[in-house]
Amino acid sequence: MRDATVQSPEKPTARNLILEFAATFVCSAAVIFIAVRFDFLKLVMTVFKRYGALEMEAFITGSLFFVTALTVFSVRRLLAFRKVNAVLVKRNAELEKAMIEIKELRGLIPICSVCKKIRDDEDSWHQIEAYIESHSHAEFTHGICPECMRMLYPGFVVYKNAR
After folding, report:
1. Most Cβ neighbours (<10 Å): which of 43, 76, 118, 148?
2. The dihedral of CA 94, 95, 97, 101: what is its sign?
3. What is the C-alpha to C-alpha distance for residues 150 and 19, in angstroms, rounded to an integer?
4. Residue 104: its pLDDT value, please?
């Protein structure tokens, strides 16, 4: 049986993804606020005018690289989440199947009042031990109770507290 506590090394949860999204949103909002507050575009243009060696294409290329890297990171996290979710769905289905297969005696059990055999759904009669073992996880061991001992073996004396 598998140990339920074993976890994969990286197991993103929906809560973690939501927290990451919220953190990314807050950071993006802060960057936009700072850019607007300090007129970032004007500062960038001033730097480009002052230092002609820096080209606008390098800035745009760097920005595109950064956006692409963030997109790849986000897609990888989403795919990892979907993979773990698929595993969890599969395990859930296995658990539901196992719950269905659990053997448990319930309801009325038709039993012969003379020989104590039990009738199954197909009208076959079985020894009580065989029926219970096939419909539960119980196993039987046999002995003789004191009343049957006196009835079957009247000359044999059973002492209740004998050692």
Report:
1. 118
2. positive
3. 75
4. 67
Q: Is the pTM of this model over 0.70?
A: no
Residue 42 lies in a domain: yes
- Per DSSP (E only), the strands in the chain are 118-119, 125-126
Q: What is the largest CA-CA distance in the chain?
A: 120
- Judge if 121 and 161 occupy the same domain: yes
pLDDT at 120 over 80: yes
Higher pLDDT: 101 or 88? It is 88
Alpha-carbon distance values, 153 to 97, 116, 146, 157, 163 (Å): 50, 22, 10, 8, 20
* Residue 120 and residue 131 in contact, taking contact as beta carbons nearer than 8 Å: yes
**Domain range for 69:** 14-101
